[in-house]
Amino acid sequence: MTEKSKALFSRAACLMPGGVNSPVRAFKAVGGNPLFIDRADGCKIYDADGNAYIDYVSSWGPMILGHNNAAVREAVLGAASKGLSFGAPTEAEVKLAEKIVSLSPCAEMVRMVNSGTEAVMSALRLARAYTGRSKIIKFEGCYHGHADSMLVKAGSGALTAGVPDSLGVSNSVAVETLTASYNDLASAEALLKSCDVACVIVEPVAANMGVVLPREGFLSGLRALCDAYGALLIIDEVITGFRLGSGGAQEYYGVKADLATYGKIIGGGMPVGAYGGRKEIMELVAPSGPVYQAGTLSGNPVAMAAGLAQLNALENQDVYSHIGRMGAKLAAGLAAIAKRQGLKACVNQVGSLACLFMGIESADDYESVKKADTGLYARYFREMLAAGVYLAPSQFEAMFVSYSHSEADIDETLNKAEQALKRAA
Ligand SMILES: *Cc1c(COP(=O)(O)O)cnc(C)c1O
What we know:
Strand order of the largest sheet: 4-12-11-10-9-5-8
Shape: globular
Bound molecules: pyridoxal-5'-phosphate
Structural class: alpha/beta
Number of strands: 16
């Protein structure tokens, strides 16, 4: 029964484009109406009709401890009781900045913003200012938020300038973005050779085209290429930061960025982003330097309190070993089910990020991922939803395992997946 969700969606559809405030929420890729969520606790979310689901969306990443974590909630309530925003410095932002600087492999200084998009947009501006160059390189299939320059993918030839992915992005912006193939160092080097490039931006684990892992040597190769060609390396840790470990993907893969962008986990569920890097680069940001970047609600005290409480809870390293074990168990279980059922599929996983790709045997880049069987995924998604498991409503998103997912939750999920895949196939 999802009557209330249906009624809410029909009201929403008249009021907001597609009935939602962010596109993938609308279930367009899988069919049906989106669920409207009333509350969430631990690894479960509850829709407006009171149905419970084991959640693998985790608000798209922030809820690494699980929903409604007591420490985060108490910190938010405490901060809120003192006033919601002052537009002036607070102790909370100093504490969160200290925490990020102490744990991030590359950030000697940070600037807080309100979203991952804003962090990326600002880091790109800073990289251009620092290098005095304008071109940027991104990788096909990597998502870095919705700033104009990031809504671009390459045309057919590797050296052709970008074409916008979205209407409304002007060609003059798009031509500054060059697109290389993920896991393909040669494609990046060809672009670096062709012109002066300000920066290379990469998702260290590509977690917005399903989950695609960096090949051995890819990230360190990018580091070397950036050094050789005088470009900055921006590692977008909006998903991986504080998820693959306290030092994020940079620590996990042993590669240091010039600038890193953060979001999702560092806000504990509140809207927060941050970018940071070497002091010499960060000091170009206003008011210490000439690169303008500002925000009315940046460093908001309630958001800082949420982020700080969550990062403090993550100091307990048991979190990372638990979510890593649960992620591996989930991935191995899904792969075994696919095999038993003779289903062509593959599972990519690192730590608490996993993705079951339907209809393909490997997923290493955008080209391979594009061939996934999205129709089968949509049927599987609907079967899982009906069975009480809330997956991302798209083949090209990660499953996020949280500290609240127990062994029993993973077992229950796998049992349901076994049935769902049989019916979907
Ligand atoms: C989610 C995401 C962003 C954008 O963050 P928003 O807070 O949605 O603006 C940027 N980069 C990566 C890697 C992301 O996953």
